[in-house]
UniProtKB/TrEMBL annotation:
Pathway: Purine metabolism; IMP biosynthesis via de novo pathway; N(1)-(5-phospho-D-ribosyl)glycinamide from 5-phospho-alpha-D-ribose 1-diphosphate: step 1/2. This is Amidophosphoribosyltransferase. One of its GO terms (molecular function) is magnesium ion binding. It comes from Anaerorhabdus furcosa. [4Fe-4S] cluster binds at C249, C395, C443, C446. NCBIfam families: purF (TIGR01134). It is an enzyme of class 2 (transferase).
Length: 464
């Protein structure tokens, strides 16, 4: 896995994408297409559970949606309701027990659950539950949900609300019983989740880009602290707490989400474009062309070019076929990782002073190699502009950066980092500019070190 991550560019990894369909014919088949549109959120494993109002059938496996599911498998998932999941996992968590949907089959009723996020008091709750006799199959946080829900008494919605009230951190959850669906977001709204209308039923998705592919019409975001119950008599809204705030993950706009998604009313492409404009507004650098690192930085590069009135060019080409099958490279191949993933177009960059936009610098090794790539192709100067602030603190809400040591900006200042990556100049967006581009109500903890929740035992790795 580390080799794969190295090869694919040392970027951040989101944990998951969730999708649900309620009361629509061929729900499993539509979920397949919805999950296809969310594949960028996780490529390691996936699954779909479907219900025909009597039984819930589930199928899951490791790999891309197109690798795990065949027509025959989809046909064996009958019913008008379905939930699905795509997952990115760290090497330690890549066991089949962690692949979602996670199922409960109990005499009180069966249900399937998918989740995107990370619970920060998971360890504490897990120990408590184990002391009370719970047995966990895997290591995923989502199993904690199941145990907490199962221990509660009363209606399903009441059980879900009581379970959520015990959890801190990020979660965006879809729960499917035989005949109902529930969409739930944590009280800080850290991960996206919304609902849409489709024929006589509903869709729930991590990102709105999945609605287009099934022809569903966006209705609204699930609110922080809200539980939406979708049933044959329509939708109902409940709040499990009044202590809510909006702290959407800013990296959703900066890097994770697809440009055609709309999150909290903001289109991701437009937000990235504005970030590029803001980078250009304070920049006096002399350059000939603007390029972006494909794919997530292209919108910001277009914005920078528009604002600076410099020509926008395609200077780097991504090789789309460096895929998951290439996961055991030799050391020599690993060193060539970036060259396999990206190529510089010499005819464009040779002899030019280039402004190169990227969305973020995490570990720094990729950026160093890209700068070298452009210089080897004849670039006269490479001015690196980053459409986010310096990534200085780990994320505890489901994004795969676990330690300070991995984050180069926690060790080097901007001048040192410029030297390290070999750029002619280096500038970042400020936190205020991130909020100007994406909206004021954001989590920016990985830039500011100020976390919107208590971190419980995870906080032990915070640098003193
Ligand atoms: S810490 Fe950073 S990556 Fe994590 S939720 Fe907050 S903004 Fe997103």
């Amino acid at each position: 896995m580390d080799e794969f991550r190295e090869l694919m560019g040392n970027k951040l990894n989101e944990e998951c994408g969730c999708f649900g369909i309620y009361n629509v014919k061929d729900a499993a088949s539509l979920s397949y297409f919805g999950l296809h549109a969310l594949q960028h959120r996780g490529q390691e494993a996936c699954g779909i559970a479907a219900s025909d109002n009597k039984n819930i059938t589930c199928y899951k496996g490791k790999g891309l949606i197109s690798e795990v599911f065949t027509n025959k498998i989809i046909e064996e998932l009958p019913g008008k309701h379905a939930v699905g999941h795509v997952r990115y996992s760290t090497a330690q968590q890549n066991q089949i027990e962690n692949v979602q949907p996670i199922m409960v089959r109990a005499h009180q009723g069966s249900f399937a659950l998918v989740n995107n996020g990370q619970i920060v008091n998971a360890e504490e709750i897990k120990v408590e539950l184990e002391n009370q006799g719970s047995i966990f199959q895997g290591t995923s946080d989502s199993e904690i949900f199941l145990h907490l829900i199962q221990r509660e008494e009363g209606t399903m919605v009441y059980k879900i609300m009581n379970a959520c009230a015990k959890l801190e951190g990020a979660f965006a959850v879809i729960i499917m019983t035989k005949d109902c669906m529930y969409a739930v977001r944590d009280k800080n709204g850290l991960r996206p989740l919304s609902i849409a209308k489709l024929e006589d039923g509903y869709c729930v998705s991590s990102e709105s880009c999945a609605y287009d592919i099934v022809n569903a019409k966006f209705v609204r975001d699930v609110e922080p602290g809200e539980v939406i119950r979708i049933a044959s008599d329509g939708i109902q809204s409940f709040k499990y707490t009044e202590k809510t705030q909006k702290k959407m993950c800013s990296m959703e706009y900066i890097y994770f989400a697809r440009p055609d998604s709309v999150i909290e009313g903001v289109n991701v492409h437009n937000a990235r474009k504005l970030s590029g404009k803001l980078l250009a507004r304070k920049d006096k650098v002399k350059a000939d062309i603007v390029i972006g690192v494909p794919d997530s930085s292209l919108s910001a590069a277009i914005g920078y070019a528009e604002e600076s009135r410099l020509p926008y060019e395609i200077g780097l080409i991504k090789n789309r076929y460096v895929g998951r099958t290439f996961i055991q490279p030799t050391q020599k191949q690993r060193e060539r990782g970036v060259r396999m993933k990206l190529s510089a177009i010499s005819a464009i960059v040779k002899g030019k002073r280039i402004v190169m936009i990227d969305d973020s610098i995490v570990r720094g090794t990729t950026m160093k190699r890209i700068v070298q790539l452009l210089k080897d192709a004849g670039a006269k100067a490479v001015h690196v502009r980053i459409a986010s602030p310096e990534f200085k603190s780990p994320c505890f809400y489901g994004v795969d950066t676990s330690t300070y040591d991995e984050l180069i900006s926690s060790r080097l200042n901007v001048k040192e980092l410029k030297e390290y990556i070999g750029a002619d100049s280096l500038k970042f967006l400020t936190i205020d500019e991130v909020k100007e581009a994406n909206g004021p109500d954001l989590c920016v903890a990985c830039f500011s070190g100020k976390y919107p929740t208590n971190l419980f035992s995870l906080g032990n790795i915070i640098k003193k």
